[in-house]
Amino acid sequence: QVQLVESGGGLVQPGGSLRLSCVASGNIDSINAMGWSRQAPGKQRELVAGVSNGGHAYYADSMKGRVTVSRDIAKNTVYLQMNGLKPEDTAVYYCNAVGTIVDGLPRRADYWGQGTQVTVSS
């Protein structure tokens, strides 16, 4: 119902910046919130940032003050601006969307993109 495609990852030096983009397609009207998670090798996937349709933004403590999540409604796109990157930020970053499935009682649905690699190294 919803497809997500990320882009913008790459190799940056410590202290550098990147802007990740995620374009949503499909049943866009079902989406309630969009955000970003990341997963490093051998680590659990963790939420980085998200924004609800109401405009409420959430940031993980590990990146608070260094990232900004934003959206462009006309382009069906959510962005993650990352500054002051550290080697420990190296991970695959995944776009995700939370939607509502309505077949009987409404229930939550989670959608995930393929991910984009971010590597922070000297």
Describe the structure in brief.
This protein has 122 residues and is mainly β. It is built from no helices and 11 strands. It is 0% helix and 58% strand.
Q: What would your notes on this structure say?
A:
The protein is mainly beta and 122 residues long. The protein is 0% helix and 58% strand. It has strands spanning 2-7, 10-12, 18-26, 31-39, 46-52, 57-59, 67-72, 77-82, 91-101, 107-112, 116-120.
Distance between the termini: 40 Å
Task: Specify the overall morphology.
Answer: elongated
Taken in chain order, the helices and strands follow as: EEEEEEEEEEE
| Secondary structure category | mainly beta
| Strand composition percent | over 45%
DSSP summary: helix tally: 0
Low-confidence stretches: none
Average pLDDT metric:
94
Largest sheet features: 7 strands, mixed
Kindly list the characteristics that best describe this protein.
58% strand; four-stranded antiparallel sheet; elongated; mainly beta; 122 residues; 11 strands
Describe the protein's topology:
Layout: E1 2-7, E2 10-12, E3 18-26, E4 31-39, E5 46-52, E6 57-59, E7 67-72, E8 77-82, E9 91-101, E10 107-112, E11 116-120
